[in-house]
Amino acid sequence: MHFIQPLMLLSLLAVTPWAVAQEFVVAKGDVAPCVAVSHALAQGCATPGAVVTIGVTISGDCEPGVQAMGLRETLPDGWTFQQVTGATAPDVVPESGTAGVVEFAWIDVPEFPTSFTYEVLVPVGELSRQSLSGMVEYRQTAGALLSATDTLTVCLVGGGEGEGEGEGEGEGEGEGEGEGEGEGEGEGEGEGEGEGEGEGEGEGEGEGEGEGELEVGFTANQTTGVAPLTVQFSDESTVSDTTVKTWFWTFGDGTFSNLQNPSHTYSEVGSYSVSLSIVTQSDLSDVLTRTNLITVTDGGEGEGEGEGEGEGEGEGEGEGQGCLAPLTAEKLREVLADLMLLGLSLGVLLLWRGGRPSAGGSYRDDIR
Fold it and tell me: What distance in Å separates the CA atoms of residue 219 and residue 261, rounded to the nearest whole number?
């Protein structure tokens, strides 16, 4: 990672500063941006005092291609950048603890779409929704261009629920004490307090019912296979009385998607845990993680067995053809019979040649 000012880097690459880029885009309003950025929240909602993960996806369809690229993110007040996570991090990242505007840059522009995640620390005491935004500055041939600004609204949970429970318990205790003090004035006061609390409880129940219900679930069309393994994921979540605002998938290899039903390819051997986080329009959130759901192998065992069998068969056939077959008893008898027949034939031939009469003589003269 390089901790230098990304805009300084882009300036070295002949990209103008942000202010100049803004003027360039306004002046060339007929040029539509060919790069877009989108954000998603990994945990659904953020908790004050805790770290939250932000997912960023940059897509583009540019001709000619992008020569240099940077990303500028504007964080809510008091939020601080912590670190980049995932396998596809930018080449240049902010220093940990940076607040306000944080900037990223790529020395080598990646292929689109490209995604990465980064963590920010939410300060203690935040109770309302907060928004962060980002835009991409890029260069094709000359001058700088800006993508449209993408804004992510972050819901916060944790602090508000504790205060609400405390107020409810206090009012309940007060009502009990008032009723116990007396019948006359005490009853009158008790009735008044009771009516006020009844209205408050009715409002609380109405808000809770209006939020709806959410239970995250998902499936994968295959969970094991040889690399590269492409898996189709399907959202099977149950949502009632509300609609989904964002999906956030993490695939266990440093990449993510904010599609409802994404397809992902695993290129490396290993086991991968997959999680899906969903946020509804009423800020309900839920996360499901399935540990070591995907197993990817290299297929080396199958190839090794095939090669071993082929080599063994080939060598066996070659050696069999080049050596004598084992000599059995039956074969030995056949060989001896052939030799005896051969010897008998040779003996008859010799006798015949030795007893043949010479010219003008007889068998008896030749013998003498």
Answer: 10
Name the burial class of residue 59, with classes exposed (0-12), middle (13-18) and buried (19+) by CB atoms within 10 angstroms of its CB. Answer: middle
d(C-alpha 80, C-alpha 102), whole Å? 9
Distance CA 236, CA 218 (A): 5
Is the pLDDT at 247 greater than 60? The verdict is yes
What is residue 198's predicted lDDT score, i.e. its pLDDT? 37
pLDDT, residue 350, reads 63
Q: Give the tokens for residue 193.
A: 């307090």
- What pLDDT score does 355 carry? 53
331 burial via Cβ count (<10 Å: 0-12, 13-18, 19+): exposed
At residue 348 the predicted structure's pLDDT band, cuts being 50, 70 and 90, is low
Residue 2, both tokens:
């390089």
Mean pLDDT within 151-155: 88
Q: State the residue for tokens 């039903």.
A: 261
CB neighbour class for 39 (10 Å; exposed up to 12, middle 13-18, buried from 19) = buried
Q: Residue 256: its pLDDT value, please?
A: 85
Instruction: Check whether the bond before 262 is cis (ω within 30° of 0).
Output: no
